[in-house]
Design brief:
The chain is 45% helix and 12% strand. By secondary structure, the chain is an alpha+beta fold. The strands form 4 sheets. Strands 1-2-3 form a 3-stranded antiparallel sheet, with helices on one face. Strands 6-7-8 form a 3-stranded antiparallel sheet. A two-stranded antiparallel sheet has the order 4-5.
Length: 427
Amino acid sequence: MVRFDHRPTWYFRFYLPASAGQRRGYIKRSLKTQDRNEAERRAYEEWRKLKTLQEDGGTVTSKNLQEVMDDWIDASWQRVVTGEIQEGTWKSKNLFFKNQLRLFFQAKGLKRITDLQVDTFDDYRYWRMTEGWKYSKKTNGRRPPTDGTVNSEIGLINEWFNNHLIPKGYVRRKPKIRTKTLDQDDLAANPPIPLKEWEKIWRWMESWSESDAKGVNRPQVHYWRNCFRHYLLVAYNSGARPTELVGRFNKRQEQLDRGLTWGDVEIQPRTRWSPKANQEIEDKPVSILDIRKTKTGVPREVPCLAATHLIRWKKFVDDWRSQNGFPPVQSTDLVFVNPGTGKPFSYTCFSRTWDQIRKQLADSLTGHYTLYSTRSSYVTNQLEEGIPSDYVCKLTGHAYEVMKRHYERMQMRNLIPEVTKIGRAHV
């Protein structure tokens, strides 16, 4: 322990002999007290942490945590350049390390890599759910994260340890951070939209997207409202993920990543037998969506009842482009393209519009529905129609365990009338 003439508090110094890539020197830390007895106790704690790291074979370094996190983010960017991960994945990781994890370390008073201990992250979930979310820069609708979000963040911490801290020798062991098994309540993050409420939504959008609707003051607004309306109708009837329909543009590689094109859409006419007419009559056509680029990397074909919406949307697009000086649609064009750029609209455009619609219909909606609620709705509707869960897995690209939870949740809800019949109450 040392004390400097110009500083009243005690300091702890730990000698580092010269080694490969590091000159000899000291790790110096303030013990933040003027009391010698308390300083000795704190100095011993600091010495014990550093000795434990050395005994475990770790590298004792004076690097601060922010430096090490920045090194990891820089190394991760190289994977974007080589095409191993998407830029959006890197941005999410960068945001987590510069915000949530930095604030967690700050709250615990951790500054250097040697401050990381086996039990450092024991209370991460508790902190994130009770305090961490309050620091979010988002001012509208700020609320605690879901268990799924925290699980994803824990996955990023584990990746940091496995691929950077341990290989670099900063630590020898990865802390055990428990993830939470998602239960039925976690499905409520993207709850399915009940049919009656869905009818209110699509009927409202029908008038909202008219050329003479309030707020439609230029052709681009009219286009966007119809684009969003038909996107939501197709999403609800196909169960596709937002990015699988809308697409995403990789700016660095200057290429489209996912997205449904007109060439991926097949419309098949149908007929049905009419006892009244005593003959085959025309029925609603079926659309087959060839979703080639998916989240899981496994392409799939989705037959669905979105043909009527797609036919109407295609006619609108053809007329709108003709009237506003745009060239005709090509088979390689995205179905929900931004005509001004030829690229996808951003996900933010869709989420903001959906938020505005939910606010307009707040009195009519009972759940906090998200853009992914169309996917949950499709799954629920298919299962209630008696489609085997294995088939629904293939149609949506869902994992079996996720589908099982949907199925069990649906079954439980269907039992509500049976188990709550009048006369069965035991008072």
